[in-house]
């Protein structure tokens, strides 16, 4: 029985993005668009209406020239576990079960054919990781040829978001199954953004697996929602208790501090253990 | 029954209330939403067998290896090739967008002949035979007048078999006017010639450097081979190497560097020479190199004497102690390297003085041909074709001077000066101009003048795959395959420390009636006939390529690239080469005047400087839709480009965030949107390159401004290179 359980050990797929290595080049954004059939319009400069599963935000330290500094923060869906595994903000509010939390992988799914576009999930998501299709997607004549058959193009009226390239997980699992394996190797399942990043700033893997690089970098406290024990690693809006599985790493304190809202003079991470005990 | 007002209203309200209480409206709304979600125009991508094919990306000079995921015959995704020595699996934003270029609507589908006025967009499709005959007739006509030098061609570079085929065609035809687009590689090449007396290219062993002093190089903004430099940057972080970025704007490179020295724009050479002064004055130079292998150290000392840290402080705005501090740290590092090339380094060669000053820093610390330093890499020599037989007309034509003056007199260090020809209109304009793999009407500075001169050329031929600005203003268009459809060698330079030749292989059938450029040149030579035909005896381009690369072909075909991993630059040995530090032309270069931006400071109180962004392609290739989507709303908002301005400067000129203003320079004016940004130096305005296209599709055209229309060109007094890095400017109400 115990044997059986270890063989079916659940995964917590997660990501660490090294913000000191990230150059803000945008490769992750386009790799994601190309992999996931993300549509585009003639004008994409209104970023509230621009569908980018992976979006690179730019933040500054607010100091005047020449003490000013900037940092880029790539933001995929954070795949929140919530206070109790599965209570992600979006999953909790979806009336159609169009978005769900997988206890097997830790991935928050989005099922377009179930979604009827109420956008509760968008209101609930503190990371703006969800996007609504206000229009039907239109590919200029000929460009529909490059669409990936593993991901269905979305239609007007539904919400979409990053899936940690779930189709790649399925393909890797199928391959492993055919080869008579139950477990995936670390490099067998990687997201499109991780693979494309020219700086090697994105690391992806199973946070539950101590052999995976993500686990080693984060040193997650799995009893407390996967809080990072590595002092250079942080999560966005940690104190909301959403327990995301996307972690960020930076040696710069102002960057770590920008990941959450703090009182004047308060240090990042100082009261992490008090906030939601 | 009488229908009065009361009963009518009762019926209406009652009916509405009844319907609202029934499930009918909700059911109808639901049905409607389901129906509209199933409109047939949402595509369903067909399934099929999934596999990968590898090739080489040619969208920039970087030379990355890529693999294309295919579903049956469709290409669906571009990824980096893991085993490739240049990019090791990484891929940049432009490389990832390549399929939008392959399948997009901006492709030219067939040879075209202009029928309306030039630039009007009225074309008549013609057959390849008709198009080639028309071009060959035109070339024969010019040659029959005994003036073959009046035919010219302009390419992105002279590298590879296609570059050499064009060059060979011009030679047998008898024209010295073979032009290439400017790049910092021209400046490095000239500097190597002056210091070491050799024709070679410069490579950098970036990965092994432990102190990188970058004079405005956009290392993370697309400089060199972009993915390779990104990877080197991550290596520097892991190895705790020090990166110092010197430039007036907090670019992505400056933000990621360990130290950012914000100097006044254009003062890079002053700073480099002052650092050299400090290194020499404090005896911090590597004497085993300087005393052992350098010539005329005394001459250099004399020149450097004027360049004190105090003088540099006045020019750069840094404190003298800061200049000294970084000079000392640079010299004391174990494997330091200094880099030259503003931004991506693909628009102009820049000031030779600045390039030379940076090269001297490398020499003083012995970073020449040493691990982690600047390497001399021999030019690729695999193209060993026999010299063609020349007839009388060709011999006479080749004797005549080049129209741009490059390679002779004052312009000896340069090999091509297309800006002089098309921008300043300095030489005699050709009668026939063939343009391939570049878009001079968009990407050369002083855009307006370039357009005027272009209009004076009687016959312009474009070989572009896309309807770009130059193709749109041509008389004849002979579209070539895009890179994913063609077979070709890609010898990579772009600052790589080792020689790498990539093989570009077709991963898909040609989508339209286009041809391989090599085949076009061979067919053209045949049509011209006589000695030209005799010089091109290959059956077709593929045969030519295989014959040329014979000993490397098997490796290329099997692995997709040929790589000399063992390459090391020649070690310095007694009695062999010498590194000249000063004297003769070098003195002239080092003592040349500083490049001062054009315009009267009283009328134009600000300075406009263009900047390069990795998310904006700005040479031959225009931004595909994916890339333009990734451009931030602090760069492009609606149709307006944002001009970056320091808040203090904005206050002084009473403009605020988001306001629309006129940006005026001595050569042009344009409507821009103000974006306040502490990342730029007060008094300096920044506008990105890569926007303001008039050609291409609605996803790119008409967005922002082409900054080249606002920037003039300035001739570097020592070489003739275009050295303009900015221009005087002012803001005015719209």
At a glance:
With about 280 residues, chain A is of the alpha+beta class.
Task: Based on the coordinates given, report the CATH architecture of the largest domain in chain B.
Answer: 3-Layer(aba) Sandwich
Q: Alpha-carbon distance between the termini of chain A? A: 33 Å
Highest-level CATH class of chain A: Alpha Beta
Would you state the CATH class of the largest domain in chain B? Answer: Alpha Beta
Structure class of chain A: alpha+beta
Mean pLDDT rating of chain B: 94
Tell me roughly what share of residues is in helical segments of chain B: 25-40%
Shape of chain A: globular
Gyration radius of chain B, to the nearest Å? Answer: 29 Å
CATH fold-type name of the largest domain in chain B: Rossmann fold
Number of strands of chain A: 10
Please give the domain count of chain A: 1
* H-E string of chain A: HEHEEHHEEHHEHEEEEHH
Query: How many individual helices of chain A?
Result: 9
Please indicate the percent range of residues of chain A in DSSP E strands (runs of 2 or more): 5-15%
**Average predicted confidence as pLDDT of chain A:** 92
Oligomer: heterodimer
Largest interface: A-B, 67 and 77 residues
